[in-house]
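Batch manifest, entry 17 of 40.
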Amino acid sequence: MGCGRALGAPPQAYFGPGSGPIWMDDVSCTGSESKLGECRHNGFGSHNCGHNEDAGVVCEAAAPVRLVNSNNRCSGRVEVYHDGQWGTVCDDAWDLRDANVVCRQMDCGSARSALQNAAFGPGSGPIWLDNVGCSGNETSITECRHLGFGSHNCHHGEDASVICEDQPESNSTVVPTTPDPNPGNITTAQVTADITPTTTPDNSSAAEGEVRLVNGGNHSCSGRVEIFHRGQWGTVCDDIWGLSNAQVVCRQMGCGRALSAPSVAHFGQGSGPIWMDDVSCSGSESKLGECRHRGFGSHNCGHNEDAGVVCEAAAPVRLVNSNNRCSGRVEVYHDGRWGTVCDDDWDLRDAKVVCRQLDCGPARSALQNAAFGLGSGPIWLDDVGCSGNETSITECRHLGFGSHNCHHVEDASVICEAPALHDYQLICSPDKLQMGLDLADLISGLNPYSGNLASRNCSWARVQNNMVWYDVDAVEGACGNTLTTNRTHAIYSNSLFVYPVIEGSFNLPVSIPFSCAYPLETDTSLNVAIRPFLPSSGGILGSGAKPRASMSLFRNSTFTEPYPAGGVNLPLGSPLYVGVSVTERQLRFVVVLEECYASHSSDPHYYQQYSLIRNKCPTDARQVSVIESGRSLQARFSALLFLLEDDYRPIYLHCNISLCDRARFSCVPSCRRRSHRSVSSSEATGRVTIGPIAWDKSTK
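Output type: structure tokens
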């Protein structure tokens, strides 16, 4: 809502009971989500409440603010709600302090840019605020000094905008369409939630959050992933789709472990809504809907990016009618229907196969006589006889699908040990991905020294503090690493395969998918402090460069003779030749100068900043020139040295930089000359960040 921080969460219809549907119940947010629909809940429309339990909130801000006309909620044209209408803000005197208040009010971090001249397009309707002057500590933009609501001398060509640090991915909302009545070969998995099934337009009964695999051919445990939401089946986009996500789908389907996570509509393009995008599972979730994603219907994909999975089991199995996924009545999916298993000859070897297929721990019990209640529908299997090494219950010896002499009072059940989820650790260091197995906690019969990464020859291990560590360089292709990027992060993914403690026989390894996401933005500061002087003055102070990114001052315009860290004395009006470089092994990335500024402090967060480069472009082309940005792992610019506010104190330069994936994006900034206009007479002269300094001021 853009209403700042929450002050209270009143329950029991504190603001009066609503009417119509109750869409959400048991809502559980971590607090970091960007919208309510991303929080965990029972599913839209699933509840046990009345309107006397309607929830409310009390926020601290005086008036809502929003950012519009961009592809995410943390950048765009600033609009304020007042007197029943949304209206814009004029850019007279608009600067980073004002933008900081807006970004904090939107819970979007700090401001990166305070844009003018309707950078995100002109608005319409009233212009509510003009000559905004914030100190930066206000909780709402309307608390800042301004001329009064509706008082201005502007037009919508001067609408103010901001770009904040926290940048969620671009999104779009899908309008659901009628699903394909003939979706091909379909396998579904029911979720064990108390949700009333819905009959869909393709005449299938489904529950909210159910998944199915489509177009997998004769193999019912592979196919295009589809999830049921709001009465419709929809697909999943393959952005950052990987084995961790596929593992959750295979587990929910009862199809064992994931073998691969095909992308780009490997199993054909779906139709209807694309329900999920940027799905990020840890791998331990019990169903796909529990994984983090952008919100149902929010995506930037087409059906040519539909995600798929290939699981190791031949046919799905599930355990039902219990309070967890690792115990219950055994049901097998065959010929488009779920059916039970008869308990004739049912023993621990059979139960062991089911538990392994469901990615649960070892079998504890093989129960008979419908221990978890009577099933309904077909009885698919009877006289099951497993050796214990099969990957699917349907691979075991049996009488044939549907051949039996049983009743549902003989339905078979199992109880499996819950899988251990705490026996490994992942460390994402600056240049390595480190996967560790805990020798004390690893109780699943695995040999921790037997592992290899996606490339079989990457099997070296080291032991430290009772952990067995497998390391891989954070480089695309190293030991099978895959690299995916978006606007904000580079994500390296791999899998560790660990083998059972069984010598001399063929055994499937346990796959532990892992990923490390590295932000593509960083900052750096110049390793010298510059003291301007007229020929009789002098002095300079040094400061340490940050790791991974460094910035140097050069003597010449060819950037071949850097000044050493230490004292540099330069006369006023001297050109500064500044180079920025990043240590990065991935050659597809390039360095982009986002913001560069001067200050009198080595602290990059010092309150007084004098902008040189803003929004990737020089603030004043007469005094600043960007020579290289967005082309390589180096960036260069030059600037003229003048006093900052008549002050001879040492000057420090700071830059915020980002890494851009030139294989996916256009990285070279496009800078056009801005048309200057006069500012209002009430603008404080101190808000001019940098300008020509009169020479007579330097004689004092």
